[in-house]
Amino acid sequence: MRNVIKLTGAVVAAAALTLGLGACSAPSDPDTTDKNDANAPLTVGATSVPQAQILDFVKKNLASKEGLKLNVRTFEDYTLIDPATDNGELDANYFQHKYYLDEYNKKEGGHLIPVVNVHLEPMGLYSKKHTKLSELGSGSVVGVPNDPSNQGRALKLLASKDLITLKDNKAENPGLNDIKDTKGLKFQEAKAETLPSSLPDYDAAAINGNYAIPAKLKPSKDALAIEPVQGNPYANFLAVKKGNEDDPRVKKLVKLLNTDAVKKFIEKTYTDGSALPSFGKPKD
Q: Which residue of 27, 31, 61, 124 pairs with 73 in a disulfide if CB–CB is 3.0 to 4.6 A?
C-alpha cells in the first residue's frame, strides 16, 4: 500500500516490546528536523486515511502561508506511532483518540498529551449478512476490536442499542468481562484494521471510521448503528510529547488544523460521514 521506511532500533524495540506489531510506510519528505531550530520542518506521524490526507491538505494549501515546513510520515501500523513520538523521532502525531492515548501512557509509561481536536471518525456496526439491527439476536457472532480502548467503544455502541447490557454504563473502557448480559450474542476479538476484510465472517462487526473508508463502507448509508456526534469523546487529535506543546511550529499547526479551510475540506472529502469536523481543545 505504501513504501516501507527504516526505523531506528529504539523505535522497533519499543514497538515490539509494547505492542508486538510490524511495518510503517515512508515519509513523503526526508526527516530533516532540527529540534533546536524553530524554522525546521515539523515531522508528524499519522495513519493514512483520513489523518495523512488532512495533513497533506494543510501542507499543500496552508502551511507555507504560516511559515511552517511540514513533513508527513504515513504509518500502516498505528501502534508504532506513539513510541516514535515519545522517543523524539516524530515531533507530533495525529491518529488517535484520548482513550487510546491514555491506555498507551498508562501501560508504557508514556509522556504524550493531546493539543487540539481535529475530527471524529464515528464507529459503526456493519454487516454483510443483515440489513436491520433487529435481525441480530441470540447466536449472532459480532466482531469487536481487540485493543482495550476501541473494544470499550464498540461495547458502548452495542449497549446504546440494547444489544447487550453492561455492568456499569459509565465505565470508560468496558471489556468483554464487563458485559452483564450478552443477550445471546457471541463475540470474536480481532485487530481493528482486519475487521473490514473479515466482515463476511461475522453477523456484524464494529468498525472504526478510518478503516471503513478504504473498505468502501459508508457510515451514513451502510451502518446498522453508528455513534452520535454530539458529545462524542472519541475525537482524533494532534498529540505531542509533554513539554513540546509550546513549540512554535506545533502552535502553527494547531492553528491551521482548526481553520475553516480544513473544516470545508473534511466535509467535502468525506461526504459519506466517515470523518466529521470536531474542533477545539481536548477534554482532560
A: 27
Q: Is 105 helix (H, G, I), strand (E, B) or coil?
A: helix
Longest dimension (CA), the chain: 60
Backbone angles phi and psi of 58, in degrees to 5: -60, -45
CA distances from 26 to 5, 92, 133 (A): 4, 16, 41
**For range 157-170, the mean pLDDT:** 96
Residue 96, beta-bridge partner list: 237
pTM confidence score? 0.74
Distance of alpha carbon 255 from alpha carbon 57, whole angstroms: 14
DSSP one-letter code for 121:
-
Calpha distance 272→282 (Å, rounded): 25
Give residue-wise pLDDT tens across range 69-99: 999 999 999 999 999 999 999 999 999 999 9
Q: Is 85 in contact with 17 (CB distance < 8 Å)?
A: no
**How long a stretch of residues is the chain?**
284
